[in-house]
Amino acid sequence: FHVEAANVNGKTVVYDVKFFEGFPGSYHPDDPSYPDDPDDPYNPDEPDDSGYTDDSIYVEEPERDLYWSDVAFPARNWNSHGYYVFASGKSAAPVVTLDGVRLPARSYSIKYQIYNYSNGTYQSVGSSFPKKPGFYVCLVQGKSPYYGENWIYFEVVKASNTLKAVAKSKFLNVRYKALNKKTQTIKASKAIKVTGAKGKVTYRKVSGNKKITVSKTGKIKVKKGLKKGRTYKVKVRVTAAGNAYYKAANKTVTLKIKVK
Description:
2 helices; 260 residues
């Protein structure tokens, strides 16, 4: 086998390549810039006990075992144990570097496994970034010409609830004449606009006149005894219970009930 030219420190040098038993090879200068020296013991046909001849250059094979790679996520969020943390619904692709060089995604495959707390084992959940809250391992396995595997641990936690709640109008009007005859009822949908809630929505009165009540379903009852021409403020807390992927959340809405 003969390599005609190679670049060494910015200079082109011609090499003859000799292979010796048990060694990947040694490379011998055969360039005019190396003058003949009758006293030079170098002889490419007579390697020493190490398998190399004098003035030879040994070139190592590049590392291809992913066990020696570095696997990381571009995210910068960690939990108290030092593991990466992602909110449910978010995702990230691992970055794999080997000998300081980032490998293209085609060089490896990715599998995710979730930790089973009941028996202390990991269970495969496929190749897509998981959304379900839990503790995971991202397993990176080399594809030809790479081999071996490496891994990184991370956690998926519940995302913040997207609950929003505001008063639907500046005032809720109650007619004094009707109020004097019987309790007046205002539906939650008429009083408060709720959007983005994750999980069951409930209501609770935080403050306000005792003659105004709010049920868990948001139904507002105004009892007789309130004065005509007055405006009464009532604060209502709206709660979204959350679910398997979202945390619970609450918003407080101030309603103004005018007795006309």
